[in-house]
Structures are given as C-alpha cells and as structure tokens.
Amino acid sequence: NAGVTQTPKFRILKIGQSMTLQCAQDMNHNYMYWYRQDPGMGLKLIYYSVGAGITDKGEVPNGYNVSRSTTEDFPLRLELAAPSQTSVYFCATGTRNYNEQFFGPGTRLTVL
Amino acid sequence: RKEVEQDPGPFNVPEGATVAFNCTYSNSASQSFFWYRQDCRKEPKLLMSVYSSGNEDGRFTAQLNRASQYISLLIRDSKLSDSATYLCVVNGDDSWGKLQFGAGTQVVVTP
C-alpha cells in the first residue's frame, strides 16, 4: 500500500500561473485534508472533505479550490499563483473512528 | 492569540538525557490531544495520543492538564534519532477531524 501520495514533489511557478497539486490515497479513508506549512508556523488547513462530492473550507481557503470526485483523489487547484502561496503543501487522510491523520510527503511550491 | 502555542526551541539535549517541553492550547472545549513528530523536510507522523490520565509509550511520556490547558511531552534516555520537531496537536473544533497544529518544538540530541 502506498498510503498517501502527492505529486509533484517540487514546483516553481511564476506569478499568475495556475497548477493542480495531486493527492491520492489507497487507505479507503473518507476524510481528506489539504494543509500548508510556512516556516515557523503550524500547519494551516486549506480545505477538507468528508467524502466524495463533499468539500468545505478550512482556515485559509482564499486562492485555492478543491474537488472530490472519488474517495481516492483530492486535488488542490491554485489559480493565479501569488508569492504568498510559496509554502509546503501537505495532503492528509483520516477516518471517523479516530483522529489520527496520515500525511503525504508534501509538495514544495515556490512562486516567483 | 494562537490556538496552540509551543516553545520553538531548539532544545539541545545530550544523548541519554531527559528533555521535557509543554504546549498550551486556548480552546477549553478541546477533547483530543496528540503529539506528532516531524523530521526535517518530511511529513508529520503521529507519535502518540495524549489521554487525561497521562500515558507512556516506551521512553515517551505525555501528560494533559485540562485546568491549566497544557500538554507536556517528556523524552527519557534521549537517542540521536529523537532529533526532530515535535508538533502539539489539538482537536478543538466542533467538526470532527479539524486539527489545530502548533508550530513545533525542535529537539536536537547531541552525542
């Protein structure tokens, strides 16, 4: 089992460009999350999903969009990238039975 | 005020020594508490959950003080491999699964 996978691992974007960060899981978890982690800061929740077809905003959703068409995939879309979106992005999954979350390896994004 | 606050450290610890650090949380209604470990440039991973009565997992001991709203982690007989950032995590939101992460406490174990 791969667990939670994320692609790409690294990406450099120019201001105004768009991209999609991919997240896939084979753990059959209903709950999926997108976080960003800035240096010296705790992880901030961007969006989350409690199941296919259901998504909701987290703490810092501006500038991002998500979709959840399947249990396995939860892509994060950045439109009109800005330098403030330079960060490390983590996707995570969890279940209703316990609060542990399982994280993917992260995507390091730089916007110049 | 941050939801979860931690001393960023670093805590420089000789191998074999004991180190302890706390984190404070602001939401008195929080019900679930965790310590995650994050290695440099890696993803966070659950180290242990924190229970009201306190709990141990090998060399690691976690305590919860609800009255003062803090959580502690103690590491005994520190190993070089314990060098990492330890994230204090609290589930304080009404919606299940929305965790609040502290910025982390860095521990550096030296030979």
Please write out the topology:
The complex is a heterodimer of chains A (112) and B (111).
Chain A: E1 4-7, E2 10-13, E3 19-25, E4 31-37, E5 44-51, E6 54-57, E7 64-66, E8 76-78, E9 87-94, E10 102-103, E11 107-111
Parallel strand pairs in A: 2-11
Antiparallel strand pairs in A: 1-3, 3-8, 4-5, 4-9, 5-6, 7-8, 9-10, 9-11
Chain B: E1 4-6, E2 11-14, E3 19-25, E4 32-38, E5 44-50, E6 55-57, E7 60-65, E8 70-75, E9 84-91, E10 100-101, E11 105-110
Parallel strand pairs in B: 2-11
Antiparallel strand pairs in B: 1-3, 3-8, 4-5, 4-9, 6-7, 7-8, 9-10, 9-11
Q: Can you offer a commentary on this structure?
A:
The complex is a heterodimer of chains A (about 110) and B (about 110). By secondary structure, chain A is mostly beta strands. Helices cover about 0% and strands about 50% of the residues of chain A. Chain A has no helices and eleven strands. Chain A has strands spanning about 5, 10-15, 20-25, 30-35, 45-50, 55, 65, 75-80, 85-95, 100-105, 105-110. In chain A, the strands form two sheets. In chain A, strands 2, 4, 5, 6, 9, 10 and 11 form a seven-stranded mixed β-sheet that branches. In chain A, strands 1-3-8-7 form a four-stranded antiparallel β-sheet, with no helix packed on it. In chain A, a hairpin with a 2-residue loop joins strand 5 and strand 6. The termini of chain A are far apart. The mean pLDDT of chain A is about 95. Chain B has strands at about 5, 10-15, 20-25, 30-40, 45-50, 55, 60-65, 70-75, 85-90, 100, 105-110. With about 110 residues, chain B is mainly β. Chain B starts with a strand and ends with a strand. The radius of gyration of chain B is 13 Å and the shape is globular. The relative contact order of chain B is 0.34. In chain B, strand 9 (about 85-90) and strand 10 form a beta hairpin. In chain B, the strands form two sheets. In chain B, strands 2, 4, 5, 9, 10 and 11 form a six-stranded mixed β-sheet that branches. A five-stranded antiparallel β-sheet of chain B has the order 1-3-8-7-6, with no helix packed on it. Classes of the chains: A mainly beta (about 110), B mainly beta (about 110). The interface of A and B includes residues 40, 48, 90, 96 and 104 of A.
